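so my prof wants the structure for this chain in the tokens format not the other one, which i didnt know existed until like an hour ago. anyway here's the sequence
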Amino acid sequence: MKIAVIYFGGQYNHLIVKDLKYLGVEAVAVTPDKPVDFLNNFDCIIFGGGPYSVVTELDKMGNAKEYVLKTSLPKMGICLGHQLIAKVLGGEVDKAKNPEYGLVNVMIDDEDTLLRGLKPSIKAWESHTDEVISPPNGFRVLAHSENAKVQAMVNSDNTIFGVQFHPEVKHTEKGIEVFKNFIQACKK
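here's what i got, hopefully its the right format
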């Protein structure tokens, strides 16, 4: 299995690659300047975090919008990647009323595929000023926190996932389980 990790310059992106390699998966950091068909060499895509705002800077994110719209590969967005997927597919993303930094208690509402084994809650690392206000049509919310009502989401096909928190950061409880669950979803 080979996973493309779309790199937006986020401080934790290298940890995503490291965790996937630890789990025995070939993971490659890919900048969003590659043409869409470049992703045909991969089985799945993970959109990492980064300093951009999809509310005001989507045009600075290279081909990321096309990666979401024009690939049928299973996808997971983390932080900025979560917001990117939501925005591009028609959800609402805006500045957070209460941005979250550091450890946050994330309540798991639906273990589904991605969050299997994480109920009832986890402490997760957060670093965001924007948030998903409402998911795109056809998505359901899997988790929430006190300040962010869409901490995790999934589409109806269980092929597109998003998490606001950072599973790759060691402070996130059971973060490696999120990656294991995504790898299983990629195999289907």
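also thought this was worth mentioning. The first helix runs from residue 13 to 22.
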